[in-house]
Amino acid sequence: MTRSLLAGALALLLPTTLGAQSEAQLPDAAALDAALTAFDVPGVAMASLASCAMDEVVVAGTADLSTSTPVRPDTAFEAASLSKPVFAYLVLKLADEGIIDLDAPLAATFYYPRIPDTDAYARITPRMILTHRTGLPNWVDEGTDFHAGTAPIPFEAEPGVAFTYSGEGFQLLQAFVEHQTGRTLQQLFRDRLGTVMPNSTFALPLPETVTPSRGYRDAQDEGRGLTNLKTRGMAASSLVTTAGDYARFLSHVCRGEGLTPATQTDMLTPQSPASGEAPFPTSWGLGWMIGDLGGLTLVGHGGNNDEYRAFAGYMRETGDGIVILTNGANGQALIEVLLLPPAQ
Fold first, then answer.
1. Which domains are assigned to the chain?
2. How far is CA 305 from the centre of its chain?
3. Nearest to residue 131, comparing CAs of 99, 103, 153, 95?
4. Summary mean pLDDT of the chain
5. Closest Cα to residue 327, out of 85, 45, 2?
6. pLDDT at position 148, please?
7. How far apart are CA 18 and CA 238, in angstroms?
8. Which of 21-35, 113-127, 196-210, 285-299 is predicted least confidently?
9. Which residue positions does the secretion signal occupy (predicted)?
10. CA–CA separation, 266 vs 45, rounded Å?
């Protein structure tokens, strides 16, 4: 998440007392079409929350330039790192069920051959991973199928000391969770969130209820399909979803559904300071970025799978929120403008 993206989220989500609307107001299709043209992004799907309930879905543009298929409410996008909060929720469900101990070292029951520093590895806990405090890098084998990766994963900092955003950490936790439960990520997702997100998946096959999009670097690009989606899911980045489905998940989290009150509070408690990422104090809870706005709290996450860019977030005190999914590499700039339109 960039500094301007987080700042921009305030324009749609802050209440009228701070100079904006009392709930998220989505642009109409005509305004979205103009924005897509200006930023050379084929398509966008947006959904809003009002008082923790899904309110509205707006779509515009093209899902597949080769067939001129328009973006529809059933259009599926790569969620990129919006996968992480969904996986974090599953881990917290397992903690409530007594299957996972958030503060017990993984090494007590699980060996991970890609981390040669066994002393540092012995200190890693699920909580460190979910709050990005493992000291592990984001990616070592970026651009490859993670499950086929063999490169050693070094530490960039001591575990538990500093914020280090890490996709590798989330993949480590996925391997641990699958080992502990005997279930794949996809099975755990279907078991615990299948009714909340019926049109979403971490792994192939794509649900028959959705229409796939293609992601593009620019209008001259041939694009790519949902190629991050493979037969085995990736906790850090492989979720494919619709705007409505992710908004239902965001609503689920906003309402505190499915978790014990203590775990819900733990999830949204700032635990890992990440100063410098936004123009206001920012930390990470368990799987979520937490922005302190001085009396109001932004709970959110961004997503970047190159040709697919995304954002989701809500205000904890008001329950107003937004989901934005795009299928263009310039989607980040588009999202920032949608969240914080230029001053008139």
1. 3-89+185-339 (3.40.710.10), 99-181 (no CATH)
2. 11
3. 103
4. 90
5. 45
6. 66
7. 37
8. 21-35
9. 1-20
10. 31
Per-residue b/e over 125-153, b at no fewer than 16 CB within 10 Å? Answer: bbbbbbbbbbbbbbbbeeeeebeebeeeb
- pTM, two decimals, is 0.93
Show the 3-state SS of 222-278: CCECCCCCCCCCCCCCCCEECHHHHHHHHHHHHCCCCCCHHHHHHHCCCCEECCCCC
- Predicted local confidence at residue 4, as pLDDT: 45
Q: How far apart are CA 270 and CA 267, in angstroms?
A: 8
